[in-house]
Every structure is written in structure tokens, then in C-alpha cells.
Amino acid sequence: MEINFAELSRQYKKYQIEYETEALRVLRSGWYILGKELDLFEEQYANYMEAKHCIGVGNGLDALRLALTALGIGVGDEVIVQTNTFIATALAISQNGATPVFVDADEFYGIKPEAIVSAITKKTKAIMVVHLYGQPCDMDSIMNIARMHSLKVVEDCAQSHGALYKGKKCGTFGDAACFSFYPMKPIGVFGDGGAVTTNDNEVADRIRMLRNYGSKIKYNHEIQGINSRLDEIQAAIALVNLKYVDDGNSERNEIAGKYISGIKNPKIKTPSTRPDTYNVFHIFPLICENREELYSYLKAHGIQTQIHYPISCHLALCYTDLGYRVGQFPIAEYYANHELSLPIYVGLENEEIEYIIKVINNY
Questions:
Q1: What span, in angstroms and rounded, lies between the C-alpha atoms of 161 and 316?
Q2: Chain centre distance of CA 344
Q3: Residue 253: beta bridge partners?
Q4: Is 257 left (phi over 0), alpha (psi -120 to 50) or beta?
Q5: pLDDT at position 137, please?
Q6: DSSP string, 295-332
Q7: Is the peptide bond before 309 cis (omega within 30 degrees of 0)?
Q8: Longest C-alpha distance within the chain, in Å?
Q9: Is 256 helix (H, G, I), strand (E, B) or coil?
Q10: Is residue 78 within a helix (H) or strand (E), and if so which, with residue range?
Q11: What is the distance of C-alpha 46 from the center of its chain?
């Protein structure tokens, strides 16, 4: 049996008529940028997120960059961020001229609250929280720290659409929340896309200008902005997927439950979920002491896997100048050296799940 890590075509086929109907309708409309589709998506996603504002942008990195810019974070500032995340989280900080201050992770792959406290300096302006793999961070502790030190909080929700912390959606705690709609995400589009949600009117207005060359009115450029807009076709596709995001999250939770209950190999550790949270399992991370051997074994049996992520951000070549060293963040580095992600997506069939479990148990 051959099982790919992702099969986006399965979700496409499930909602094919809606996707094609909406895309064709937008194509026939003759309006493709900053139109009614985006307005409707922003309204509906803001409602879904229980936020005052949603601003659609070109991708997840731009969402993070523009949120930080709108919050006034730039040259000379420091932003504390976990090192076990995709590089885009850190790039958003440094591309604003600020310095990412990396810290270690906790047992649930989130930022370690105690590490935040130790990293705060006079230059610290914000905490970047990453709900990695769809797993919520310890938001009570993080928000208490932020309030105590008057710090902004930006939530990187690129993998956690619909995740819950104590019954409240991830992305509703901080000053702004940033989303990616990359095709594999819980809400994906057919290309790149992203959004920022916030309850701050000034932040929302500033992001709307920043994404559109720094203007509210055409050719009247009040600030230096960029071109980063969620286009009309992608907004229409996102609206379709917004209808089914909770269904997809439930389906991945069912798959995760089968993995967790079925995998009995003592060499393999399945993920734990933080108490009082709802993990949407964008990624299903295994831990194995001999990851390379397990990867090769699964590949030989037709099971494709991926690593998320093999190099912690503090050890990335692009951040060599910051002077971090191997061994500085042992938990995050352990994840980088031992994590392996199993297939988990809408349309993964039960016989495929059972086959994956059987193969892993025979390892």
C-alpha cells in the first residue's frame, strides 16, 4: 500500500462542485482584487473567530509581519518566540527590524512560560505565541506574564484554526492573531493566503493600509505599505472551507484518536494534548529515538512521512549572527532530532489508518 503524507485531491473531490461553482462565479464577475468576496470572507471569519476585525492578506508570513508593524514593533525591539516553529514566525520579527529572542518549548510543543520570564529585557516589546501542530499553548500563564510586563501578544495560528483553550478559540487572547491559508492548513486555499484578526480598531485600520501600499484611498499613500491582499478567488475558496473547517478538525481528531489508541510500540511516543484544550491536529507528531531508521522503515512500506521541523530556528544559518549555540534549548532541539509526522488529513481512509498502525507496531 502506498500512502502519501498529504492528498489534497481528496478534500477537493469531496467539495468539488462548490469549489468549481464559486471559482467560476468569481471569474465571470470580472472583479478579482479587494471586492465583495473578500469583504464577505472577512466578515464571516471575524464572526467565526469572535473578533471585531479580519483583514485578508497574501500569506501567513505577511500576516505576522503586518501585525507586528501595526503594533509598532520595529528596530531596536525584541520579540520573544519559541525556537521550535517554522521559520516564518521568526522571519516576521526580523523583517520588521526587530530581534527574535528564542526560548525553549514545553512538553506540548508550545512556548515554555518560565522561559519567557527569563528572556524579558528592557527591549522586549512582545511575545509571539505559536499554537504549533494545532495544539494550544498555555495561554493563562502567557497572558499573565504579558500583563505583568506590559507586553503585546501576537498569536501565530497558522496551524490552529478552530483550536480551543479552555473553550475559547486560539487567536482570541492576544492583541492580534495571524493565520495562513496555505493549502494543507485546516482552512486552506488553492495557493497562498492569510489573514489577521484583532479587536483593536487602530491595528485593523493600519493593517488594511499596510496591505494595500499604505493607502485607504487610491493613490493617497499615508504610510509605506506593501502589496499583500487575499484575492477574490482565494477568498471564495476560503469561504467554502470555512463552512467545513470544524468537520475537518473533527475528522483529524478521529484519526488522531485511532493512532493514539492503536500504536502500541514502546519505541514510539504519540502526542499528548494539553488539559482543557481542543487540539485540531494539523500535524500528528511522533517521537522516536531513531527517527531516521523509522523514516526509512515506513518509506520502505509505502508510508510517506515528514519532519516538523529538523532545524530549530535558533540554529538556522540565517540567524547565525545572533550567537545561539547547540544545546542551548534542549527540549526544542530534542524535538528537532526526534519528531516524525504521520499522514493526517481529510479523506484518509480507515484501511490506510489501520495499515499505518500495523506497520508502526511491527517496527
A1: 27
A2: 16
A3: none
A4: alpha
A5: 98
A6: HHHHHHTTB--B-S-SS-GGGSGGGGGG---TTSSHHH
A7: yes
A8: 65
A9: helix
A10: strand 78-82
A11: 17
Residue pointed to by grid coordinates 510543543: 109
The C-alpha cell that represents 196 in the structure block: 489577521
At position 21, the amino acid (one-letter code) is: T
DSSP letters, 96-135, are TT-EEEEE-B-TTSSB-HHHHHHH--TTEEEEEEE-GGG-
229 pLDDT tier (thresholds 50, 70, 90): very high
Report the percentage of the chain scoring pLDDT > 70: 100
Query: 29-78 pLDDT, tens per residue?
Result: 999 999 999 999 999 999 999 999 999 999 999 999 999 999 999 999 99
Q: How far apart are the first and last CA of the chain?
A: 16
Amino acid at 116: I
6 to 11, 212, 282, 284: CA distances (angstroms): 10, 33, 11, 12
Q: What's the sign of the alpha-carbon dihedral 266, 269, 270, 271? A: positive
* E strand segments, the chain: 53-57, 78-82, 99-103, 124-130, 152-156, 164-165, 168-169, 176-180, 194-198, 215-217, 220-221, 268-269, 277-278, 284-288, 339-342
DSSP 3-state assignment of 257? helix
Cα–Cα distance between 80 and 82 in angstroms, integer? 7
The DSSP symbol for 344 reads -
Distance of CA 59 to the CA centre of its chain: 11
Rg of the chain in Å (alpha carbons): 20
Distance CA 170, CA 160 (A): 7
Quickly state the pLDDT bin for 203 (edges 50, 70, 90).
very high
**Beta bridge partner(s), residue 130:** 156
- In angstroms, the Cα distances linking 247 to 11, 21, 294 are 11, 21, 31
Residues in the chain: 363
DSSP element (H, E) containing 339: strand 339-342
Q: Sign of dihedral through CA atoms 251, 257, 260, 264?
A: negative
For residue 85, the model assigns a pLDDT of 98
